[in-house]
Amino acid sequence: MKNIEYYLQNLNIIYEDNHLLVVEMFINVLSQKDNTGDLDMTDIIKLYIKRKYNKLGNVYLGLLHRLDRRVGGVMVFAKTSKAAKRLSADIRARQFAKTYLACLYGNLVEDGSIDIKLLKQNQKAIVSPKGKKALLHYQVINNINNKTYVKIDLITGRYNQIRASFAHIGYPLINDHKYHQGIKPNRDALGLYCYRIKLNHPVTKEKLTFTSYPKGEIWEDMK
Fold first, then answer.
1. Does the pLDDT at position 1 exceed 70?
2. What is the 3 state secondary structure string of the chain?
3. With pLDDT > 90 as the criterion, what percentage of the chain qualifies?
4. Residue 51's pLDDT is what?
5. Is 68 among the residues known to form the active site?
6. I need a surface site. Which of 40, 85, 193, 204 has the fewest CB within 10 A?
7. Mean pLDDT across the chain, nearest whole number?
């Protein structure tokens, strides 16, 4: 695994002011610490702030949302507790909009929606009448070589929602061994990318849009 200096040198800062920090998430880096003890984005960003502003003490950083370890894309952090509180309230009120790009196995032809109920069970999201409402809308970008690229507007934010939803309708994500039987476990990038986030600035209330485009072999055929 690469060390923290590598990530600091390659950190893509999309936006920064006194209240917000928006970055491109590294693939195969955790959003926050777990029991593996592996490096996470929170530690990387805290060290970035500490060095840039010569801070001697602890650095505050609010993690507002998470991305799966093998998913890249736009990630928003709060630099103050006030910003974190206000943005968290916006997330609950669905005023924090996330758009994803996904690469799926198979030829999905028509745009549509997936409206199911998902229950988290044994670190997996399963479709269950006991679960919580999970809604997303998707638009087909193109089909090529038995793959489909889609743009996804995530309406609810359930655990593994996009992965479980597309597997449920028979079009699992590329490299998703968790929801696609027959795919061997690996650490390859998942066919999923957080392409755009729209939010209201926690202080000025200005409507902001942050965008990042995926790179790598999975996305070479997307037009």
1. no
2. CCCHHHHHHCCCEEEECCCEEEEEECCCCECCCCCCCCCEHHHHHHHHHHHHCCCCCCCCCEECCCCCCCCEEEEEEECCHHHHHHHHHHHHCCCCEEEEEEEEECCCCCCEEEEEEEEECCCCEEECCCCEEEEEEEEEEEEECCEEEEEEEECCCCCCHHHHHHHHCCCCECCCCCCCCCCCCCCCCCCEEEEEEEEECCCCCCEEEEECCCCCHHHCCCC
3. 84
4. 95
5. yes
6. 204
7. 93
Place of tokens 């055929």: 221
Residue 136 to residues 109, 148, 207, Cα–Cα distance (Å):
17, 17, 22
> Do the Cβ atoms of 41 and 25 come closer than 8 Å?
yes
List the domain boundaries for the chain: 4-214
Amino acid at 137: H
Task: For domain 4-214, give the fold.
Answer: Pseudouridine synthase (3.30.2350)
Task: Using the predicted structure, report yes or no on whether residue 38 has a pLDDT greater than 70.
Answer: yes
Instruction: Enumerate residues 6+ apart whose C-beta is below 8 A from 29.
Output: 7, 38, 39, 40, 41, 44, 69
Q: How far apart are CA 155 and CA 35, in angstroms?
A: 30
Q: Which of 43, 68, 111, 176 is catalytic?
A: 68
Residues 29, 69 contacting (CB under 8 angstroms): yes
